[in-house]
Design brief:
- The protein is α/β, with parallel strands linked by helices.
- The chain has two domains: 120 residues, Galactose-binding domain-like (Jelly Rolls, Sandwich), CATH 2.60.120; 312 residues, Glycosidases (TIM Barrel, Alpha-Beta Barrel).
- 23% of the residues lie in helices and 24% in strands.
- It has an eight-stranded parallel barrel. Strands 12, 13, 14, 15, 16 and 18 form a six-stranded antiparallel β-sheet that branches. Strands 1-17 form a two-stranded parallel sheet.
- Strand 14 and strand 15 form a beta hairpin.
- The longest helix has 18 residues.
């Protein structure tokens, strides 16, 4: 439905009055939690697949590997953290256990773990060193704990395995301090008894809420962060932060509408569940020597940035450590180049000191001087929800307003790229919204 009542909420950033008339009631709608708000503002997360597959040169292990194979001779999680920080990433997620069931911490619930490896003479704890390294560099640690476990004999005996899984989850949530994100996938195969495991997602979610209520849970079904629907790092457009959970009730749920739900969210959704777009910097998710020359270019990473962060989703970029336990020099160099490129592209915001005028259907910006602009960054004040469903960006040139880009949703951040136009007058026109929108900071680059 078309709306005309619009106001700016970020007065400090936009230089315009931003008060709401006292008589005007703000309608109730979905908004992010404090943890979700921090997470969306972080925008960039690093994924790191490390474990038994690193040493067997596989992507999916079968659970029959020997712990003696795990021995990263130069392991240094602090190197990972520094590389992530230089790249501009704010949180990092480690595969504490992948599908092969090998655990990177000395769990007391299985012998298939680092405690039976030669690394650190059996006294090592990758998870401990990982969380300490991330926090030392000002990053927030997250953990991936595969529900599918191809080593554990109780897998397929649903009640028994669910208790086993929750016991391991409890170790991770009680022994390593605050965790920003628990990454769950829906991978599900048959157990040794030939039966398919039925995951007790309500029990898993209750456990996390009880032990770390501020931690966010990711899966294709949420409940806090939803998968964007592909492993290509590309979000849908439009992309709403809200969804109706009844349509995808649990991880791994399969129905015709799932793809649409994941990619685009729902304008009338009843739950705030923003999207995360995961992708690997290499063809595989674990490190393989044969792929050292196949690391994504900085140009490709920038395209992924615009297709994820620029479409109201977080980018989760996987960077896998080598058998030595370090990020390969090619991967680390690419992260540094990417961070530098992002900082360079967005170094000068020509709208930062503009005069802003509120109009009936948007806002106008008068710059201090003519500027050649080819990128517009729009934000909604998502603390108050997401509303915009259609907009356009215009520049005043040759005596008339010229549309330079059009879009659908905005959310936390929408980045539009267009052929550069030189002008000192710009405007954002809100054509449609599901409720009264509130813009945050506008950027012109």
């Amino acid at each position: 439905m078309k709306r005309r009542d619009f106001f700016i909420s970020s007065a400090a950033a936009l230089g315009a009055a931003a008060c709401v008339p006292a008589t005007l009631a703000i309608p109730r709608f979905q908004v992010p939690s404090r943890s979700q708000l921090w997470w969306q503002r972080a925008e960039l997360g690093l994924f790191t697949h490390f474990g038994m597959n690193t040493f067997t040169d596989r992507e999916w292990g079968d659970g029959h590997e020997s712990p003696s194979q795990f021995n990263p001779t130069r392991f240094d999680a602090r190197q990972w953290a520094r590389a992530a920080k230089v790249g501009g990433f704010k949180y990092v997620i480690l595969t504490a256990k992948h599908h092969d069931g090998f655990c990177l911490w000395p769990t007391k619930y299985t012998e298939h773990s680092v405690k039976n490896s030669p690394w650190r003479d059996g006294h090592g704890d990758v998870v401990r060193e990982f969380v300490n390294a991330m926090r030392a560099e000002g990053l927030r640690p997250g953990l991936y704990l595969s529900p599918w476990d191809r080593h554990e004999h109780s897998y397929g005996d649903s009640p028994r395995y669910n208790q086993y899984y929750v016991a391991q989850l409890t170790e991770l949530l009680t022994q390593y301090g605050p965790i920003v994100e628990l990454f769950f996938d829906g991978a599900n195969g048959e157990g040794p008894n030939g039966k398919k495991q039925v995951y007790d997602w309500p029990l898993i979610h209750r456990t996390v809420r009880k032990l770390q209520p501020d931690a966010l849970m990711f899966s294709d079904a949420g409940p806090d962060i939803r998968w964007i629907g592909n492993e290509r790092g590309i979000a849908g457009d439009p992309n709403w932060c809200t969804v109706n959970p009844a349509l995808v009730p649990y991880a791994g749920f399969d129905a015709p509408q799932v793809g649409e739900w994941l990619q685009h969210g729902q304008a009338d959704g009843t739950t705030w569940r923003p999207g995360e777009a995961d992708v690997s910097i290499r063809p595989g998710w674990f490190h393989h020597e044969a792929e050292n020359a196949k690391v994504r270019s900085v140009e490709n990473l920038m395209e992924l940035y615009f297709a994820s962060v620029g479409r109201n989703a977080n980018l989760l970029l996987n960077v896998p450590p080598t058998r030595e336990g370090l990020f390969h020099e090619a991967d680390a160099a690419r992260l540094a180049e990417f961070g530098a490129r992002v900082r360079d592209v967005f170094a000068v915001n020509h709208a930062a000191r503009a005069r802003v005028t509120r109009t009936n259907d948007g806002l106008e910006l008068e710059l201090r001087a003519n500027a050649s602009i080819g990128i517009a960054v729009l934000r909604e004040q998502i603390e108050r929800g997401q509303a915009v469903s259609r907009y356009r960006v215009e520049a005043f040139a040759s005596g008339a307003w010229l549309p330079v880009s059009r879009g659908t949703t905005i959310g936390h951040k929408k980045i539009d790229r267009f052929s550069a136009v030189t002008s000192d007058r710009w405007r954002i026109v809100i054509e449609e919204s599901v409720r009264r929108p509130e813009l945050g900071e506008v950027g012109l680059y």
